[in-house]
Amino acid sequence: MSGHSKWNNIKRTKGKADAAKAASFTKIGRELAVAVKMGGPDPASNSRLRDAVAKARAANIPNDNISRSIKKASGELGAINYENVVYEGYGPGGSAVIVETLTDNRNRTVSDVRHLFDKYGGGLGTTGCVAFMFDTKGVLIIEKRAGDDDDDVMMAAIEAGAEDFSPSGDVYELLTLPGELEKVREALAKDGRNILSGGIERIAQNFVNLSPDEFARYETFIEKLEELDDVQNVYSNVDSN
User: Fold this and answer.
1) How far apart are CA 36 and CA 203, in angstroms?
2) CA distance linking residue 18 with residue 235, whole number of Å
3) Architecture label for domain 134-203
4) CA nearest 154: which of 145, 163, 146?
5) Predicted local distance difference test score (pLDDT) of residue 241
6) Which tens digits make up the pLDDT trace of 50-61?
7) Which secondary structure element, helix H or strand E, spans residue 164, and what is its range?
C-alpha cells in the first residue's frame, strides 16, 4: 500500500507554487462546505467534516480559515447544489484512472475532464469501465511517535480493526473496511495517536509500470486534472514509486 495513498498527493500539493496552493484551498473549502451541508458544523458528530478538516490541516490551511469556512457554509450553501460525480477512463499508457468531482455544473465538468483525457492520449470511458480494478477502503494516516516500535503499532492497529498496515517515512498508513473506519479512528484517537488524514479511498488491486515517456505524460495529466476546481480526488493504478 505504501506510496499509493492520497497522503502522497497531499504532501506533493504542499510543495507546489502559490497558485496551485490556492486551488487546493478552494477544493478543500468546497469539501468543508459540502460536509457541513450534509452533516452539520460539528466535526465531533460529522465524520465527513472531520476528514475534511484533517485534510485542510495537512495542506497547511490555518485554523482560522477552516473555522471561517465552516461558519460561512452553515449560512451560504442553501442555493448551491453540488453533486458528487465520478468519471472513469484510461490515461497515458492505458492506465486506469478514476476522477471524483464535486460540481454544480455537470456539463462544464465533463467537458473539462474529457478534454484532458483526450489531450494526454487517453479517453473518458463509461461508468464501471475501470472501477472493478479498484477496492474501496478506509485509509488512515497516523503520525509516528518517538520510540515507536513498528511491530507494536501494527499489532495495536490490527486489534483495533485495521486490515493492513504499512510504515511510510514519518507516518503509518492503515487500511480498513469502509464500515470500520470510524471504529479504528476512535481507537487510535483514544490511544493518543495524531491522525493526520482519514477517509474513504479507492485503492488499485494491481499497479502498472509506465515507460519514462508515458510516466512523464501521466504525471502532467494527473496534475492538470487535480488543478481543476471541480476535481476532488484522482486515483490510478500507476506505480509511482
Assistant:
1) 26
2) 24
3) 2-Layer Sandwich (3.30)
4) 163
5) 65
6) 888 877 877 778
7) strand 164-168
